[in-house]
Amino acid sequence: MDTRSHTFSKERLDEFRQIFEFYDVDNNRIMDMGDLDVALRALGFSPSESEVEDVIALMDVDGDKTIDFTEFCMIIEYLQFKKGKYGELREAFRSLDLCNEGLVLEDDVTQMLTSHAKEMTLKEINDLIRFTKTDELDTINYSKFVDAVEKADCDKNNDKDEDTFK
Ligand SMILES: [Ca+2]
Ligand SMILES: [Ca+2]
């Protein structure tokens, strides 16, 4: 990871430490997946089970399938980063999803993206819409859409990020 690892204030680190210790019930200074899930929720994140698995796979540096405090901080940092960058987009979609079905109208999406994702070109938006279109007329699956935006973004930055995870 890059210098973002050093951006936590001492207060934040103390808070993480307290949460870590609180949820490390058996006090062996590591968290298993279940502990981590509860701790992340306590910190205001709401990852799905597969997301928790994903971040563990990504952040479990020493590969022991459990999370020590250093890894824990990295996970929070990663989730904060993700939440900050795409959370807003996801929220915006959610507000359009009146029936709560995970589906939004294609027109609404185009309109929203032109105001929310200014760095995206109309062609990129249309490509993504085509990719995430559902069988139902003129609707898209927005969860799939945000994932696709994120992936496109990751691919774009791949050269830069490659070194930071070593
Ligand atoms: Ca433990
Ligand atoms: Ca580990």
Automatic annotation (TrEMBL):
Which PROSITE patterns does the UniProt entry name for this protein? Answer: EF_HAND_1, EF_HAND_2
Q: Give yes or no: UniProt keyword Repeat.
A: yes
Q: Where are the transmembrane segments?
A: none
A GO CC annotation given for this chain: cytoplasm
Q: Is Repeat tagged as a keyword?
A: yes
Which GO-annotated molecular functions does the record name?
A: calcium ion binding; enzyme regulator activity
Q: Which Gene3D superfamilies match?
A: EF-hand (1.10.238.10)
Q: Which Pfam families match?
A: EF-hand_7 (PF13499)
Q: Which domain of life is it from?
A: Eukaryota
Protein's name in the database: EF-hand domain-containing protein
One biological process term in Gene Ontology: microtubule cytoskeleton organization
Record keywords, A-Z: Calcium, Repeat
* Source organism of the structure: Ciona intestinalis (Transparent sea squirt)
Q: Where is the EF-hand domain?
A: 11-46, 47-82
Q: Which SUPFAM superfamilies does this UniProt record tie to the protein?
A: EF-hand
